[in-house]
Task: structure prediction
Amino acid sequence: MVATEGALTVDFESIRLVSLVLVEAVVLYVGYGALEKVVGPAVTAVITGRE
Result:
């Protein structure tokens, strides 16, 4: 932990973990969006009976 002036402290492990979770969320968002764009019309056609 690196202490700065005052009561503010920076825990680089926490910053790394939050960054990793944010990157994972972005990757999943983009991945599921692409999957929905590719597979979505076929699934919608099957559900509505318009094969």
